[in-house]
Amino acid sequence: MAANTEAALKILLVDDQQSHRMVLSAELQARGHQVLETDNAESAVRLFVQCRPDAVLLDVEMPEHNGHWAARKMRETEPEGWTPIIFLSGLVGDGDLATGIEAGGDDYLFKPVSPVVLHAKLRAMQRLCSQQRQLVQLTDQLKASNASLQALSVRDPLTGLTNRRGLDVRLDEELRAARRDKQPLTLMLVDVDNFKLYNDTAGHLQGDQCLRRIGQLLGETCRRPRDLAARFGGEEFVILLPGTSHSGAMLFAKGLQKTMRQLALPHPAEGKRCVTVSGGISTCVPDGSTTIESLLSRADAALYTAKSLGRDRFFCFETQADTNTGHAEAGHYDRDQGSSAEMF
User: Fold this and answer.
1) Residues where 4-aspartylphosphate occurs (predicted)?
2) Could you read off the pLDDT of 310-336 as tens digits, one per residue?
3) Residue 119: what are its φ and ψ, rounded to 5°?
4) Under DSSP, is residue 88 helix (H, G, I), strand (E, B) or coil?
5) All domains in the chain, ordered by first residue
6) How far apart are CA 98 and CA 266, in angstroms?
7) Chain segment 99-150, per-residue pLDDT in tens
8) What is the CA radius of gyration of the chain?
9) Fewest CB atoms within 10 Å of the CB: 21, 70, 123, 134?
10) Bond into 112 cis (ω within 30)
11) What is the largest CA-CA distance in the chain?
12) What gap in Å lies between CA 227 and CA 11, rounded to an integer?
């Protein structure tokens, strides 16, 4: 008998008559296929789940559960896959064929099985299996590409941090979670001090390098799984700290200031002084009236207060304190009173 040039298949052969199984199994193995045998429907379903064959030859008429029952059970175990099921039957009526197809079968072989027809149908199933594998591979590649594009769509290309789009999504998620769990949520709006002077003096390329380094530092300070550093726009960043109280936020801000001083990025327009940041802190246990806009607005007002107090500090309205002095008298500072060009 000529060797089969198609890829070998793992075939589950189900027939309650041992003589039929022996003949078919020998024919299949002679063509290089691996054969798993059983004589009942329940065992067939178990083998199908455990071994995941490439094709099933399934007798229709068996005691207790028949082949149609087994086919339905097999289909239930592979909602996203597809394994060819060929029924073996002596019933040749149109109704019998329709019932088999509805049960999940793909084709019929009439007993006694012709070896020529058997191998012709298996070759067709091999081609279908090959096409399915290619389709699965292409689908996986497409999913990976989509996941990569999704990641890029929420990533700031300059700093590598989450961008404004990604921030909005996370803010909504964390706001809902904090409201549901009645836990505090802290948002920090961080701005690089005198960054316009930095760009005007050193140029925008050096300014970009400065932002990259600061972005890296902010990302490294967010060590808990749900903490987030994001680029808000320009030289402004947002740090999101779920489950962090006012006191915890102030401690975090002081630690961030210390790390910035250790980084010691020279500011080209300020002599021996280094680059500093100012920040506004907004912390609350959200209720039904709390919105993303209200959190950002309060953090923005606190940032302007920090700028008005001399920069290089973080200010929090809830504690009426800044990280440099521990207290402040500018809790009601109106950002419209000052010029952003002068402060920033």
Assistant:
1) 59
2) 999 999 988 888 888 776 544 444 444
3) -70, -30
4) strand
5) 10-146 (3.40.50.2300), 164-343 (3.30.70.270)
6) 80
7) 877 888 888 888 888 888 888 888 887 787 777 778 878 878 888 777 667 7
8) 34
9) 134
10) yes
11) 97
12) 51
Where b means 16+ CB within 10 Å and e means fewer, 304-333 reads: bbbbbbebbbbbbbbbebbbbeeebeebeb
Burial of 116 (0-12, 13-18, 19+ CB in 10 A): exposed
Q: What is the C-alpha separation between 290 and 196, in angstroms, rounded?
A: 33
Residue matched to tokens 């996986």: 140
Q: Assess whether 329 carries a catalytic annotation.
A: no
Q: Interior CA angle at 14 toward 51 and 99, to 5°? A: 110
Scanning the structure block, which residue is given the tokens 């597809």?
A: 82
Q: What is the spatial distance between Cα 303 and Cα 191, in angstroms, rounded to a whole number? A: 8
User: Helix (H, G, I), strand (E, B), or coil: what is residue 95?
Assistant: helix
List of E strands, the chain: 10-14, 34-38, 55-59, 85-89, 107-110, 185-192, 228-233, 236-242, 277-284, 314-316, 321-322
Query: What's the mean pLDDT in 67-94?
Result: 83
Kindly state the DSSP code that residue 338 receives in the 8-state scheme.
S
The pLDDT tens digits for 11-64 are 999 999 988 889 999 989 998 899 999 999 999 999 999 999 989 999 988 888
Q: Residue 195 in 3-state DSSP?
A: helix
Residue 142: what pLDDT?
81
Q: With 60 as the cut, is the pLDDT of residue 93 above it?
A: yes
Structure token digits, residue 219: 């990302």
pLDDT for 139 equals 77
Q: Which of 37, 174, 235, 236 is catalytic?
A: 235
